[in-house]
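dumping this here so i dont lose it
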């Protein structure tokens, strides 16, 4: 697992002056590091599933950027599907109470699954998803997450591979959003808190 301490000493980490980056305070994981880790993970998956045809399941919408990059970097045949779930909570904190908005389009009994997650925060969303999929009797499930937050109170949930461990901060970019914005940033960034803090009442 690659480590990042979020330090901002490199000139390359300066936030570009462009409209999609408005409100971004600092770049936590630059595009170059994401590309490198995607290649490493793709090689690992190639090796693990060399004699199989895994089904890669992307959790919409946050996992889309990561999943498409990983699947393109893989050299073995891989099938894909998506699930969309919405977790109730505030805009920056999930509650673990989950509703399925889009289910898989196929039977997964006996299949080898690779779940691609954008970020494991409390772990509650992933736990719900794993419980649901396990009841459908797949052969096995591997969880690959782009990000995992350092959290003392996080649930103990199965995550087999994490691309980057990050500090417990709200992040956006490379698929992750705040209020449906910032998903198309090519890097992972920390927002200026003024973007999501409530406006002062008069
Ligand atoms: P959990 O249930 O607390 O692990 O939250 C998981 C989901 O909440 C992720 O799949 C994201 O959609 C969302 N989420 C959690 N932390 C962040 C963040 O820092 N930025 C953007 N979305 C986040």
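and the seq i came up w/
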């Amino acid at each position: 697992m690659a480590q990042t301490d979020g330090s901002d000493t490199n000139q390359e980490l300066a936030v570009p002056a462009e409209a999609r980056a408005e409100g971004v305070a600092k770049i936590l994981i630059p595009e170059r590091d994401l590309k490198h880790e995607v290649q490493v993970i793709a090689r690992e998956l190639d090796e693990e599933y060399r004699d199989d045809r895994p089904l890669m399941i992307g959790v919409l919408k946050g996992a889309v950027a990561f999943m498409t990059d990983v699947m393109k970097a893989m050299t073995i045949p891989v099938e894909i599907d998506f699930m969309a779930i919405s977790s109730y909570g505030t805009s920056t904190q999930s509650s673990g109470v989950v509703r399925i908005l889009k289910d898989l389009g196929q039977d997964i009994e006996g299949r080898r699954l690779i779940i691609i997650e954008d970020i494991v925060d409390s772990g509650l969303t992933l736990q719900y998803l794993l419980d649901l999929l396990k009841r459908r009797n797949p052969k096995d499930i591997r969880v690959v997450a782009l990000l995992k937050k350092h959290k003392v109170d996080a649930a103990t949930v199965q995550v087999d591979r994490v691309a980057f461990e990050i500090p417990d901060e709200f992040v956006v970019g490379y698929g992750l959003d705040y209020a449906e914005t910032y998903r198309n940033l090519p890097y992972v960034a920390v927002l200026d808190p003024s973007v999501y803090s409530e406006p002062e009442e008069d």
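The first strand starts at residue 2 and ends at 3.
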